[in-house]
Specification:
With 112 residues, the chain is of the alpha+beta class. It has a domain at 40-112. The chain has three helices and six strands, in the order E-E-H-E-E-H-E-E-H. The protein has helices spanning 22-36, 57-73, 98-107; strands at residues 5-7, 13-15, 40-45, 48-53, 78-84, 87-93. 15% of the residues are buried.
Amino acid sequence: MGRESQSGRFGGELPIACNLAGDEQAGRREAVRGLLDGGRLAGELDDGYEFAFPEAADRAMRLTEFIVAERSCCPFLSFELAFGPGGILLRIRGPEGTKQFIGEELVSGHER
């Protein structure tokens, strides 16, 4: 899944690739898709995607744990959680090439 190295949003060169490999990567992908199954694709951003989830304390905790775990294997990604009256929004963004990476890894099957 490696891609060319890109400049990170906060500086430095980070590859647009997951640090996991093989079974570990496949297991992580399945877990992430399971988490996203509880939400829906809310929109495309210039540099990523936005997912919407129903508001619930346990969902907020699971999304936060997801972000922490993803930062260790995909450090090029940027995450935002927004809480509002309609629920929780998760924005996943990154440098050029990230949107394609997210689309291939996560968005398939989560269209609106």
